[in-house]
Amino acid sequence: MSLKTSFYCYGHKNVLCKHLTTLEFTTDDFLTLRGDCIIGIRSNMSLFSLPEKMKQFIRNDNTKIIVKMEVDDLVEEVIGYGNSKLELSDTHAMIIRKSSYTCSRTLMIGANKAAIDISREIVQKMKNPDSKMRVTIQVFPADNRRSIHA
């Protein structure tokens, strides 16, 4: 059993994806060069708006989370984990972290990829403001985690 939800975000000329430990989607409609972890802007979903049942599962230390990003024919997946300390309350940022740091903006921790690890083909496409990325979050509750293959 798993829960799944999808949303869309868009490209921007300042997408760099150079951050070593984080990857971010934002509902903001602008991006400065300082936001080197951001891959998409104008997201139509925030952590706050995630389905409540999904939030319950994400707030478990043993829940596995897969974030799938699709732009045209390119696909990238990031795998990480939930945590009981996750607030999932931010209305602007959704951050994937390699570290174990948590705050109101964190979606998952212990991720296998950050912005720097994302395919440069995808990053190049997301530099175009007309590019549209479909992001799917799939949550595997702890009791099913052992049967999921990364």
UniProtKB/TrEMBL annotation:
Pfam families according to UniProt: DUF371
Source organism superkingdom: Archaea
InterPro entries reported for this sequence: DUF371, Mth639-like_dom_sf
Name this protein carries in UniProt: DUF371 domain-containing protein
Organism listed in the record: Candidatus Heimdallarchaeum aukensis
Higher taxonomy: Archaea, Promethearchaeati, Candidatus Heimdallarchaeota, Candidatus Heimdallarchaeia (ex Rinke et al. 2021) (nom. nud.), Candidatus Heimdallarchaeales
